[in-house]
Write the structure tokens for this entry.
Amino acid sequence: MALLEVKNVNKKYGSRAAMDDVSFNVEAGHIVGLIGPNGAGKSTTMRAITGLMSYSSGQITFDGQPVTFNNHSALDKIGNLIEYPAIYPNLTALEHLKLYAMDTKNPADFKELMHKTQIDGDNFGKRKAKNFSLGMKQRLGIAIALIRNPKLVILDEPMNGLDPQSVHDLRELIRSLAEEGVAFLISSHLLDELQKLVDDVVIINHGKIIQTATIETFFIHDQARWTFDTNDNESALQIAQDKKWQATIDNGQLQISGAENLQQVITAFNAANIQIQSLNTATGNLEKSLLDMLAADNQGE
């Protein structure tokens, strides 16, 4: 049994389906990226999982227990940072952790947690939260999400406001916790960073899951793409189209995908005496794959 199971969950706002028969699982120790455009249903899904919002049908189960708007007994081992953390301006970082740990039987060690999330340095100390930067507040929010020693952590835009070093450190923290068995469900617009982190992806569009896959499986379908500049791009385009490859000319450069390999393309160009003046290869890009998938899904409406 998966740690988190979301089965055929539906939620409507008027006539609009915010969640349309949503189903996916999160396994213990796995880092799952919930990905989609603004308004796709990511935050709604996260809020339903954390019991912050009701849903009309379906079932959400965490660690074998049902989760609903009126049943929060399963949530003691779920940590979350959805949208912006609830920060009190006149409390210090440590006072926040003590506050959020009040209803927790076995909270995390404050000192260790502050060190892990980098809120124990001189920038925090006895300073009140009203003097924190956005990045400092974000790190405090992540620490709050971990205060219960959760089995599952749900993070919505956790890298928002963080500098590159802090993003790297957060990535390492999440990986280390996942190795200890903690599961993560993460939504982020920083797809390049998410790509470096997640084990699985769940793609949502218009409230409906359009694909779930491991990150490796997801990229199997992401064909290699080559960008050429030749001495005759128009003739090269015609050759590619005759070969039934996907080919376009964009900003004066020829883009090709669908060939078995690069050598096949080069051989075809050489046979036609077309000279390659520049060549770039791209593959395994989460953003490009996502955009292609969303475009295909939107066309199918």
